[in-house]
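tool=predict chain=A
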Amino acid sequence: MKTRMTSLFALALCIAGSLSAQPRPKQEAPRAEKPRLTETERIQRQANRMSDELMLDDQTSAKFMDIYQRYLTEMKECREEFRKTMAPDGNPQEESEYAGKPETDLTDAEIENRIENRFAHSRKMLDIREKYYKELKKILTPRQLQKIYDKRPVIASPHHRHHYTGHRHAPYRYRRPATPCHECQGCPL
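tool=predict ok
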């Protein structure tokens, strides 16, 4: 009788332990939605962040904020204009008739038009960057200008992912010896 009670008690403990180990559905607390920033607020915040990063004094910061906000606004307008020119009907690219159309289905004239539009857009973006470079050069040092103009987007290719995650070598699943790739021989990371 005592062994039967002990085994029933052990069984009850195992069942209780397995139930507590089961994942519970998350109880989602109602989130207060963040208010979406308007474009002007977003540009203002971005300019403030850059001003802080450059460690500007109050007088220089006021001049910088005005110029940098105009720069960001012009760049945004240029990108929006480019999206409209890439769609033949004037709608942004995502809503155009080419949205689901593979690039192989485009005619030669459409392909040439897209390439020429990209060249024109690149020239316009460069002109805007040079225009504001000349203005910012009057109030900032070359190192501060470098921080503004040398911002690089994060590289998302799988080959270069280790630069951002800290992994230098091929993943374990390839079962290769742990050696850096040929591009990373002189990599400081």
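The chain has six helices and no strands. Residues 93-97, 153-157, 160-167, 170-177 have pLDDT under 50 and may be disordered.
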